[in-house]
What does this fold into?
Amino acid sequence: MPQPELLEHFPNPYPDRPYEIFMTCPEFTSLCPIGGVETDAAELALLKGGAPDFATINITYIPAAACVELKSLKLYLWSFRNDGIFYERVVNRILDDLVGAVQPRFLQVSGDFNIRGGIKSVITATHGARP
Amino acid sequence: MPQPELLEHFPNPYPDRPYEIFMTCPEFTSLCPIGGVETDAAELALLKGGAPDFATINITYIPAAACVELKSLKLYLWSFRNDGIFYERVVNRILDDLVGAVQPRFLQVSGDFNIRGGIKSVITATHGARP
Amino acid sequence: MPQPELLEHFPNPYPDRPYEIFMTCPEFTSLCPIGGVETDAAELALLKGGAPDFATINITYIPAAACVELKSLKLYLWSFRNDGIFYERVVNRILDDLVGAVQPRFLQVSGDFNIRGGIKSVITATHGARP
Amino acid sequence: MPQPELLEHFPNPYPDRPYEIFMTCPEFTSLCPIGGVETDAAELALLKGGAPDFATINITYIPAAACVELKSLKLYLWSFRNDGIFYERVVNRILDDLVGAVQPRFLQVSGDFNIRGGIKSVITATHGARP
Amino acid sequence: MPQPELLEHFPNPYPDRPYEIFMTCPEFTSLCPIGGVETDAAELALLKGGAPDFATINITYIPAAACVELKSLKLYLWSFRNDGIFYERVVNRILDDLVGAVQPRFLQVSGDFNIRGGIKSVITATHGARP
Amino acid sequence: MPQPELLEHFPNPYPDRPYEIFMTCPEFTSLCPIGGVETDAAELALLKGGAPDFATINITYIPAAACVELKSLKLYLWSFRNDGIFYERVVNRILDDLVGAVQPRFLQVSGDFNIRGGIKSVITATHGARP
Amino acid sequence: MPQPELLEHFPNPYPDRPYEIFMTCPEFTSLCPIGGVETDAAELALLKGGAPDFATINITYIPAAACVELKSLKLYLWSFRNDGIFYERVVNRILDDLVGAVQPRFLQVSGDFNIRGGIKSVITATHGARP
Amino acid sequence: MPQPELLEHFPNPYPDRPYEIFMTCPEFTSLCPIGGVETDAAELALLKGGAPDFATINITYIPAAACVELKSLKLYLWSFRNDGIFYERVVNRILDDLVGAVQPRFLQVSGDFNIRGGIKSVITATHGARP
Amino acid sequence: MPQPELLEHFPNPYPDRPYEIFMTCPEFTSLCPIGGVETDAAELALLKGGAPDFATINITYIPAAACVELKSLKLYLWSFRNDGIFYERVVNRILDDLVGAVQPRFLQVSGDFNIRGGIKSVITATHGARP
Amino acid sequence: MPQPELLEHFPNPYPDRPYEIFMTCPEFTSLCPIGGVETDAAELALLKGGAPDFATINITYIPAAACVELKSLKLYLWSFRNDGIFYERVVNRILDDLVGAVQPRFLQVSGDFNIRGGIKSVITATHGARP
It folds into this structure.
């Protein structure tokens, strides 16, 4: 189960300047839902044929009062490792969890998933408007 | 014959947020029409000189109530394999079939066809306006 | 001599939708004019030192009632092979000939010429406005 | 069914010099066998879930008395389009058919197949020794 | 725990010809051992800080009587997903398991691991001699 | 400690024309703060585990009366070498120091930091509006 | 000394159509000023340590009545070879000289200079507004 | 018709040292033979459908007493422009003509022809042995 | 001063199999010696103009009884950060220190240093013979 | 005129180990001889049409007692800037001058010259045998 409580933040050292932070994590992995049903029973999922998914997660945001702590973001992304979850939910869930954690002026999450069945998918969701 | 009835969809889990989905399929193949006449008599076409065409199909859309089911999209694209069909029709037909299947807020189909006679073609058609 | 009469067209199968067609031909060749004078006396030109020029011709257009027939475009581009002609005229001439042939909503021709004397040139001309 | 009878040849114009010919065809496609059983019942295969395979076929050879006619090679490779056949057999079969057709001094066939299930395969088989 | 019993094989269709098979899997993942101790207590490892490792596994072999079944190889590689294991052991273990499964004439395994602490590692182990 | 007093400038030779200067320095290095505390006690930091950070610093500006002297910029960037400092501060600090030194019409600093913990960061801050 | 008198032009064959011409010269070289003083005493400069600079000069323009003659542009760019001159002046000087020679509707010069002291510079100046 | 009489040479300035010269010409063009019959009736060939071929010609040699004059090589390669000639003959003919002209210690010609009918060809012929 | 005492090792888990380990560290930095004299007085060196050097260090080895511990290698490479040292010594010193630490069957160190004064250097030293 | 007297050397710090040094200089420039006659009358050459040549010079050597001093190599390569000299002589001359300066165990010089008249040249000369 994604664990948003792992996300930590620190005070933005330049809160008055709307600068942009881009982070890319090429090592995201989760599991495919089994029979179209999402699950977080990890070992179970893998054994029953819930194939691993791999993605690069790209995050762009303009901080307001707080910045995402980098190491905690890494731990949060690891928490998807053994969940059976759809692509659309991965991206929108990360968006919601990050917005909840740091209340940014703007935030965009893009998940670039490895090819499956000869088709590659990229899902992009946005919170707020880029100035 | 393209088989739009193969296309399946599932409810958009985040229907209120206009997020974007991009899918690319580098393994599209159909046949060239024979003597300028389109046909779906597959074996016939190949034997009579209807040369195979190859393309990458890129699809970008913003879902409304429904999302395209990925495996069904793959099967739908396979259904062009033995048809004799022009480039322009391939792209516009996929656009129409996908719009019919999921009624998106916005949808764009681009077909990037391999070089023929020393010329490469890319056809791009759009439904609705990108926000 | 460029032969616009070689250009053929066929009815646009989707005339109501303003979709875009991009074609790239990396195998264009013509000759350099001799002593700054353009000519179409092919063998003559080559023997007198009219050096071959090589270019990639990129064409983007939005068809109205008619589409350019791909094979006829190839033959038309071949008809420049033994002419002595300036870069600027190559690009504007192709633009004029294509506009004459299919009366598109929009058309752009770009000629990307190989390096000569340590300098590379790209000429781009446009008919109509891209929506 | 692969049709080796499509392969044509012409006399090697320089039979005394052991020169090398490399040909690459990035547009090879066949079908995956259904349930592990190879078949040439094309439409049947595709409908039952025999997924399309895509590969680049690379051929290197040193001709003896005869050279492979390029257009006939293309038609021969097309003849795999609707067969259900394993990767290993594709490559070894092309090797055997080409050796049968032109009796070269040396011939190597390499099939570079698109990723399936997250794994990419390249199979390489050789006839004779490269000098 | 790696599960070599998942590996399946099928009879080599061309056992008399020493041809080569290369497979590359860019989606390998395992966990870093905790405190330098290897473990297969998956959830435990991840929670205690056993960071995920990512690698591309490249396998080249010349089959004797049997070939590795591709889907079973995928499942076997998935079985490392939640183990805490060193790079050196990953590569040598895969080598041993594959040699045990198909008794090839030659086999080489190379693990190309993602950068950690600013250093990237590639480990390569070989069974038998390449002809 | 970053030493802005190292920055030198010279009169803009074309002060009336708002032209743009882009400089990229792929060799920036500083240290990670120890225990989340920034420091400039260099040797101390490295010994206690303040790991080195590496970045490419990209600077784009439109000069007003003065231009940044290139060699002095190099020396200024070197002055971060043994400081423990956060990414966000590196970029905003360089922005502030350069604005202080040459009062440009527009200035943007982007720090593209090497991957750490499987995540790459790019921070971008801007002074003034690009025309 | 840059020699603008070398620049020649010819009548624009399509003066009524605002088409664009891009030229790139990857072989520009000049010398670094000695002790911050610009000079055109070539041999002197090189002997005293005025190090060679190398750049790619990119020029984009929309011709009005006249086009730049390509060979004369080459000779003009060669005339900087043995001058000691700053980057900023190189780019603005070429802009002024070309505007003086052909009075274009729009002209942009960009100088992309090789890395010096670990820093790369790109200077871009513009005359008129791109439509 | 290829014109080997255009090839000129000059005395090798370092005849005692077996050094290597590599030349690559990415701008070779000839015509496809009509109906499988080679011809040098240029205009005729093009009009009757002898399609243009394009290749990069790579030449590597170790000179003995004489070196190939670069400009004359260019003119010689131009002399194939309007001939209908097979790939195999292009490469072997250039090899024979160059060996005849400069009697090198070693010479290799490789013709890398653009894709035709979805297949790319590279022909390589050699005179003498590379030390 | 390089600190070889930082290098740690662990027992090779497969001591009987001569497998190969490649490690690449793209983040090596040291200082240029001042006035041609090597020094380890860090701050001093940087202030007096001992410019930073940057390199990628590539290490390939075949372990005997012991393997290099990855984190200790990272710390060892960090220990060059503030030394003034020549390229040749960097590479040979790392070779000697690693050979001293793990007594490998074979070891090669290659230092690929960033461009300085328009020249790039790569130094490669080897201990033992690669099988 | 090339000035070999500019080349300086320093004692090889590891004279007993035959390690390899590779240096690449992408910024070499000289002039083309006028009318086939080599000259060192710089300004004269450029004015009379001796066009600039550009090359990347690659040098690989195994030092014996002495190493080439990097800055002096740079100055030596600059000394060709205004000479009219053939490609073959550039490469063999640098080889001879470096061998004269440091008496290496092995030395190879390769000059990779920019395209002229649509043809690119690479000349490679060697002193001694690579172990």
